[in-house]
Amino acid sequence: MSVTEKFLSMEYGPAPEDPREVLVWLDRHARKLGHFIGGAFRPPAEGVYFDTLDPSTGEPLAAVAQGSAADIDAAVKAARGALAEWQSLTPHARARYLYALARQVQKHSRWLAVLETMDNGKPIRESRDLDIPLVARHFYHHAGWAQLLSQEFPGYVACGVVGQIIPWNFPLLMLAWKIAPALATGNTVVLKPAEFTPLTALAFAEICQEVGLPAGVVNIVTGDGSTGEALVKHPDVDKIAFTGSTEVGRAIRKATAQSHKKISLELGGKSPFIIFEDADLDSAVEGLVDGIWLNQGQVCCAGSRLLMQESVAETLIGKVRERMSMLRVGPPLDKAIDIGAIVARVQLERIQRLVDQGVAEGATCWQPPSLVMPSRGLFFPPTLLSNVHPTSTVAQQEIFGPVLTAMTFRTPREAVELANNTVYGLAASVWTESINVALHVAAQLKAGVVWVNSTNLFDAACGFGGYKESGYGREGGREGLFEYLEPEWFKRAPRLATKPKAMDQPPEQEIDRGEPQIDRTVKLYFGGKQARPDSGYSFEVRAADGRLLGEAPLGNRKDIRNAVEAARKADAWARTTAHNRAQILYYMAENLSQRAGEIAGRLAAVVGKEQAHAEVRRGIERVFSYAAWADKYDGAVHNPPFRNIALAMHEPVGTVGIVCPADLPLLGLLSLVMPAIAMGNTVIAIPSEAYPLIIGDLYQVFETSDLPAGVVNMVSGPPSRLSKLRWSTVASDALPAPTQKLVEGAQSPACSCSSAPVPRSSLRSRCPAHSRCPSRAPARLSQTRLPRPSHTLQAADIASDPAAPSPPDFAPIRSYGPPDGAHAAFRAAALDPNTSQTKQTAA
Length: 843
Prior knowledge:
Layout: H1 3-9, H2 20-28, E1 32-33, E2 35-37, E3 40-42, E4 49-53, E5 60-65, H3 69-88, H4 91-107, H5 109-120, H6 124-152, E6 156-158, E7 161-165, H7 171-184, E8 188-192, H8 199-210, E9 218-220, H9 225-233, E10 239-243, H10 246-256, E11 262-266, E12 272-275, H11 281-293, E13 305-309, H12 313-324, H13 345-360, E14 364-366, E15 383-386, H14 393-396, E16 403-409, H15 412-419, E17 424-425, E18 427-431, H16 435-444, E19 449-452, E20 467-468, E21 471-472, H17 477-481, E22 485-487, H18 488-492, E23 524-526, E24 529-531, E25 538-542, E26 548-553, H19 557-569, H20 578-594, H21 596-607, H22 609-629, E27 636-638, E28 645-652, E29 655-659, H23 665-678, E30 682-686, H24 694-703, E31 712-714, H25 719-729, E32 742-745, E33 776-778, E34 791-792, H26 795-800, E35 827-828, E36 838-842
Parallel strand pairs: 1-5, 7-8, 7-10, 8-9, 10-11, 12-13, 12-18, 13-16, 15-16, 18-19, 19-36, 29-30, 30-31
Antiparallel strand pairs: 2-3, 4-5, 6-22, 11-21, 14-15, 17-20, 23-24, 25-26, 27-28, 28-33, 28-36, 34-35
């Protein structure tokens, strides 16, 4: 037997990691751990504890406190009490604390890795070589941002007290993703770790004590879902940051909708792993191993959908099966194993249930026949489901386990259609030797992150997030810092009245009672045409003094459907050059100015003469501002500390639904719609409920400004009803909100005209340098996000502020205020410079 044959036939012997230090630490706490509140550990208010288990053995590791509403209240009060002192520190002082946390994590790196593996079940190699180094990297990186904060983010201040809820798949890494940027920007934190994996968060609490972090700056409350719910609903929390399931994300969004809380959500995914026929198949298979079997497939951006070009499918499946046969499943503390334990029995049962359902729906299940599974613990073998139909449950639902579903395609167009055939949009991976194919496909993928010839590359310098039901917001990099900052003026902005002010001036002209006026019929507007409502009904619109101004068309489900269809057909608008889009917006401003007097005259009947003229004047200024930004909102290049580059370039969200505020009929609509179309989106807008007749003036402006049909569509009616119809009956790209896409990739093969390697750039990505554009998404960096509004509009502000607004933070699907209009200021998302959809491509 040759040396090569002996090497290939050698079995791996056990190489267990010693857990002694972790057991000593647990014993020192008597295997019973409380909450970390106000710089000290304390027992739970209700005296209830629950066990956290080692998933590889089923044995309890420690009893952990069950948090109650009283514990959350104590933690929030501690965070609020520490806020002023923390923010009074110089940026350099806060940077020192973050630097100390990074150093202390490195000093305890092996102990933290072992604790993470015992509590979570992931292989020790992953905890030791991936998770903990990235934890330290995040604190180092954000120590730098803390130092530079005042000069790099002028005019921005911390949100305040931040509530953070993290998942169980990367417990300590997710803690670092959340806490590091929050502290760097001057916030204080109340963090709720996952019920299944709380131990490394409590170990981090001790590290906070060791570095002398001021009491109350970081507070950690453990517990189940009820604890997280109490944190989300606490009235004194200024921001919620959540990573977890889409179902819980929806509940959080609903719970915070009628509050002042800023939110960011990083939710589920069903990421495509696309392999073209010209790809290096061996490299692609190795990437696939990292893409789906990392952390037992319990990764939100796992490449769980394998899309293979038909010509290489049979060969590729053979290689995948061969590689799967070499994977080792066993005790996660063994350094020689590849796949560890599933985190909890409920998750193991869910994985098995979904696999069984996939087989029942026609899939072929293959698992390595020679694989030896552990006799105890929560383990699931690596699984390949082939012959999967694109609409199958296993192709649509997130399994969150070591299960790969395989499908084929023939052309790049079909690959894109299959990849985008999901409610999720978190990540994607493209494998090809052609840089043209890579860039062409990556640009069309609706995913927050696109990796090219690579997968699962993460770094603190590159934002991460998703599209659609994968959430919104960014974590990491410059763009991630905006999640924890607000414009300084916004903190001081007064709330707006929920109804338009009473008319402060009589009508501009006395009505001539001698002859009847010619009836002015306002219609709906979609597809570039005026249209009567399908309902056949109208509703009265009255002035502030009760006079009947006219009747507005009452839109219904069919009108919304027609408007969305028209917006979808206008997708060529996204491919129009930024220069041409800017020219059309300038033309709109020109035509609006020509009709300023008559529009203000009609508007004055509802909001008063002074506000009406102010809205028209400021509206023209803002249209100019968004026209100016149309060809100036550029992307950026990230330089992560490995052999890759990440190109962050902005891209449109797609079709955006906008509910306009009642208080500012003209300016509110222009402030939300103009930035959206400036960035290449198409829009369905529900105008001000107080004065929907404004659409009669605006569609005449649009029709005379060369705006292509379908780019702007307007349906009037009660926003509370129409907004529900819109989201329940049509697929909108802006349901979760704008997003960021990050396309990362390894170096591309040599260029055809040169022997030098060419970086695989990507298409669009969020611009960490500017982060200022409305609804334009940066190229594959992160997630679909609903950027939050940043400007409170009021008549006084409109009249007095001479400057055009900064580039906006556009929130495509936001209704400003509850249906009854009973609270808070109208926060015009189109006016904040820090959110947009970005796709980042790394090469």
